[in-house]
């Protein structure tokens, strides 16, 4: 019986010693294991959503009503939801290939070729009429399209209506009539179609002039000339029309959206396929008052020197437009998100928040977009990966908060203006 108690006591002592050994030798490993494998905590789910329609939130998982896919959970640790915008996990932004750029102040440089046509100079349009009834004695060898110099003879006409008035004028001159009578007869001769030069010639030579040579009053191209030998003319008959081509007009089609870019810094150059390698400097330009509703273009009229008459009316031409705008806030064009209803950018502040902002666009050229409002110089804008960030901003309601803030600021500004008035 005593032996049995000794065996039991011996087993207890051995068990205690083995427990101590286990505590000494095994506890360090157990502690290390606990440190490297902390207890798992369950991630908090805010809501579920369809990535293709991120603005719609769901309270529970399930199939998407929009697409053939399951709803995706939105975890609380994936991005904050605060008044400043959205915060996205740095690992996720790195996977998106996020790139940013800084808004700067500068000028927008724009270049574009405009289709154009060469036209006659309508400031040099002259209509030649007989101004007196008579007979065509001779027409000079001219036809429509010929170029004439100022003073060139066009046609010889015999005018019978001048004979009586000229005889009266010469009679008054020979009897030393008063100036009043002489001036009255001179006026009759002028109204009958005689030029002042012919009247002075009559006074000087004392010879009745019934035969007159009608000459070109300016240099240009004959655009009408229908007089023939032996024709009878009345005083309202048109003998010829002459249109000038030096300088010549070049009329280009200017898109309405580019009209605001034309300023004193604009450089316009004219070229044509008929004259390869040649360019013509524009002397002056003007945007005409009419607009073409079918093409949504304005007419840009250029005045171009044409001393050698190389530019012919009717030619097609190209106008090279190079212009520089005033100073505006510039951002890369890939930073703009255009929904059709509004344009916006995604900015990043110093704390890493991604903030959507609506902007007003002036113009775009060569990968740069000029803004009228919405950003200030130095703000950082997202240029790559912005669509997924924009989707994230929609999910978290940052855009709606932004619109409410802007509406409040606009209302406050209006109230201040009314108070100032």
Largest sheet: 6 strands, antiparallel, barrel
Name the poorly predicted regions.
1-36, 80-84
Number of helices in the DSSP assignment: 7
H/E element string?
HEEEEEHEEEEEHHHEEEEEEEEEEEEEHH
Compute the number of strand runs.
23
- Which assembly state applies to the chains in this document? single chain
The dominant shape is elongated
Strand fraction: 35-45%
Determine the mean pLDDT: 80
- Rounded to the nearest angstrom, the distance between the terminal CA atoms is 115 Å
Provide the helix percentage: 25-40%
Secondary-structure class: alpha+beta
For the biggest β-sheet, the strand order reads 7-14-17-16-15-18
Question: Cα-atom Rg, whole angstroms?
Answer: 46 Å
Give a verbal description of the structure:
By secondary structure, the protein is an alpha+beta fold. It has seven helices and 23 strands. The protein has a six-stranded antiparallel β-barrel. Strands 11-10-8-13 form a four-stranded antiparallel β-sheet, with no helix packed on it. The chain has a three-stranded antiparallel β-sheet with strand order 2-1-3, with helices on one face. β20 and β21 form a beta hairpin. α3 packs antiparallel against α4. The radius of gyration is 46 Å and the shape is elongated. The N and C termini lie far apart (115 Å). This is Cu(+)/Ag(+) efflux RND transporter periplasmic adaptor subunit CusB. Keywords: Transport.
